[in-house]
Amino acid sequence: MKRPLIINSPSLQSLQQRYVSALFTFIFWMIWIFLWTPLITLVGWISGLDLIYIQMIELEGFSDITEDFAGFLICVAIIGCVLGFWALYNFLRFKDIERRAAITPVNNQQLAAFFGVAVNTLDTQQQTQCLSISFDDQGNISQIATMPKPIEVVENTLDTNH
Known about the structure:
The protein has 7 helices and 2 strands, in the order H-H-H-H-H-H-E-E-H. It is elongated, with a radius of gyration of 35 Å. By secondary structure, the protein is mainly alpha-helical.
């Protein structure tokens, strides 16, 4: 088997080597981003970001936003406090109660007794692919009929209709 040209085992490097590697990675990513600056500037100029700069920075349009931002932060803080108190209340209320118990599995005898059918009928119904079940006004099963397997739809139905 051919050995790879790049050994990627940072655990074998000393702490100083890892820091130097991270520093070089950061420097070269910054150079890479700096090389994209002319294209990003062109896209911003074409999309009108210079107009946003004029309106928000030079004409001080940001002052209205900063006034509204304080109210926004107050609303977020109030909502956060309400949710925090609600979580604390629920934690204190349910901290010693285990409600995530597993449900005991149901066997076919219990299932047949619940639905009011014979166990051998239930076995047959579980093996059947298509059933028609009718319910009465109280929600009880009134009739169960085995349906034939549905006919598969031909993909090119439009071609046969011409």
